[in-house]
Amino acid sequence: MNTTTSSNQHVVDASKGALLVLFLVTVIDMIGFGIVIPFLTYLVEDLTPASQEASIGIWVGVLMTSYSAAQFLFSPFWGSLSDRIGRRPVLMVGLVGNTVFFAMFGLANTLVLALVARFLAGVFNGNLAVARAYIGDVSTPQQLATRMGLIGAAFGLGFTFGPFIGGELSDPASRWSIFEGTIFETHPYFLPCAVASLLSIISLLVAIRNLPESLPPERRTKGERKSWAGGMVQTMKSTGSMLRSGSVSVVIWVSMLFIFGFTIMHAVFILYTQMSPGQGGLAFTEAENGRVFAMIGVTGILTQGLLIGPLSRKFGTRRLIPMAIIVTGIGLVLIPYTQFEQRWIHILIAGALISVGNGLFQPSSSSFLTRIAKSEGYELGVVMGAQESVGALSRIMGPLTGGFVWVFTDARDWPLDYHTAFHLCGVLMVLAALMSLRLPPLPDDEGEQRPQSSSESE
Description:
disordered N terminus, Growth Hormone, Chain: A
């Protein structure tokens, strides 16, 4: 490992092995989030007593939400702990927790046990902030943007492979005779969870060998420990302040509405696709659902790799944001209008619109928020922390809202039927797009005063 010295502090430059570990931690984090999406509805149906079938949608929403809720609640704790004892042990504990609770979820035989396992997996997967802090510890200002981009790439890969693994490896006994009569037949969703656990073990072994501590003792927090409740209160105060802070608040509110609408789809997509054609659904299997989400992930990666730069230079980030929101909203609203006979063509068109729109919105909104915060003199850490908090709350409320709306509308007549949750996604996207029209021009707005260079668009 190399060292470089700045005027303020001693920076330890990370080895390639350490960066690989951070990449794997982030990939596993997103695999853990996405791996259940293709089979969660089927697992809930298997574990729900016949007398409680009406509550399936609510349980899907609760299980989907529990992971994000745990991350939201415990990320500040892990970050604070890493400031006191170092990054390496916290990341190690997270990988051990992933190994245990991914497997526990796959073996759950009651909804309560599944909920406990999912929540605890989220608790121990709340160390993404620690991975970012590690990169901050070991990177010079010139390296920081590129290395944070590594985390972004890991996000995309994790969300692509998570649903794919979850779908392809679900219920293996019905597809491959080698699994008949084994634990994988009695617990049909254990195999993808076991694979996630195995990936976590591999990452742990790589970390033991290649992940040195990035925070030397002299830079660790030695002051009075702040309680978890105190940390949460401070987080909420900072977030509330940012939501009232002029131009910055507009960007954060737009992101909140977008994520809220987008994550409603996470809860109701499988509830729709697994319905029989007679009910208006597509009769998709777990594997087919996983392939749809994998396609969305791949298209999103290609969008961020190939389209975001040219489109940002052509239209400007300020104009691209509402365009991306509308494209996403159209895709979400089109989902329940898929015709069974052309289901793959229709669902792939809707999925492509969603993934392109989301792939354009996420980097554009983050870039715009960074630039407006800097231009108006805000502390970037506080602003980004507020955006993360609002995003986490939206990811909590979205699946819950989707689950409840589905339960109360899916068996009714149009327009208040299984289309309703997707219509709600569209309404939230329209609100986000209208609010985005209030985004102010920047002093050097690339879409109105001058072309933006490639480096500025990234």
